[in-house]
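Please annotate the following for my students:
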Amino acid sequence: MTSISEVDAVPKSKKPSDSAFKQQRLPAWQPILTAGTVLPTFFVIGVAFIPVGIGLLHFSDEVKEHIVDYTDCESVNITGENKLHKKCADVLAEDSTESCFCKITFELREPFVDKVYMYYGLTNFYQNHRRYVKSRDDTQLLGKLSDIVSTDCEPFAYHNENGTNRPIAPCGAIANSLFSDELTLFSIKHNKSVPLLNTGIAWPSDKTIKFRNPEGDLQTAFKTFAKPKNWSKEIWQLDPDNPDNNGFQNEDLIVWMRTAALPTFRKLYRRVDHEQDGFKSGLVAGNYTLTIKYLFSVSAFHGKKKMILSTTSLLGGKNPFLGYAYIIVGSLCLVLGIALLIIHIKCSKSTADMINVTPTTEYH
C-alpha cells in the first residue's frame, strides 16, 4: 500500500497536454508570395492611391489662408503712434505686468469666401510633455470644487497668500499657461472692425460633458479660490459680455485645455460673424489691421506667435501633407511594380522548369 508521503514525493509532469493548441497542430494557412499575387497588389495600390492624393490636394488647395507672424511686433499706443520703439516681447521681458499693444497692417489679395476662422499659432511650445498633460484636475473642471485639489496640479495647486494656502481654480500647468493675447481685426475698406465670435469654437462634447460650472453665482462659488498665477483676470471675468462663456465653460479655456500633440500647433481663436453687413459672404480683398494686446510671452522658450485667417473645405482645414503622402506612396508602388515586373519577365524560370525540379537539378 502506497503512503501519502510517497504520493507527494512523485514529481508532477511538466509535459503539456496533448491538445491541438498546445502541441501546435492547429490548421494554418501560409501565403506563398508569387509574382502573380505580389505584382497586381503593387499596381492596385498605385492606381488607387494617386487619384486619392490628387483629390486631397484639390480640397486642400481650395482652402485659403493668410498668416501674420506678430512675434516681434513693435509697441504702439492705441492710436497707433510709436510709443517706445521697442518690441512688445522686450517690454514684457522687462515687466510682465505691462500692457503692450501693437498693430500690423496686411493685405488679402483675394476674397475669403464663405465661413472664415481666426486661429492663433505657436511654435516650440511642448503641450505634449507628460507632466504638462497630467497637470490638471478633471474633477475640479466638472464643477466639483474642493479645498483639496489633485496632486497632479503641483506646483500650480495652491497660492500662498498671507501665510494661507488657497486652492487655485483651475489648477495645473495647462490652465496657468492659458493663451492670453487679445486679437482684433479692422477692415480698412469697410472702415469698421471685423465682427468676431468667441463662442462655437470648442467641441460641443467638451463644453457639455467635460467642463461644467459649479452651481449658483460664479463669483460666490470661486470666492475662496485663487486664480492661476499667470492670469490677469478672475475666472468669472473671462468674458464680461457673455455670462454663459465664463468659468470653466469659457471656450477659450476649453480650447487651450485640449493639448496639442506636436510643439508647432494652431488653435481656433474666433469665428467671423457672417450675419453682419459687409461680411455676410466672407472677407473681401483689401487691407486689414490686426491689433494685438500682447500678453503671452514666447521669448522664454524661443517660440513664435502667428495669427491665421483661414477658410475650410469639405475635409476641413489646409493640409497638403496627406495628399502628398498618398501620391508618393502610390508612385513608389507603381515604380516598384514595374521594376519587379521587368525582373520577373527577364529572370524568372518558366512554370515547366519549376515543376521539373528534382533533388539532382543543378542550382543556378
About this structure: The mean pLDDT is 89.
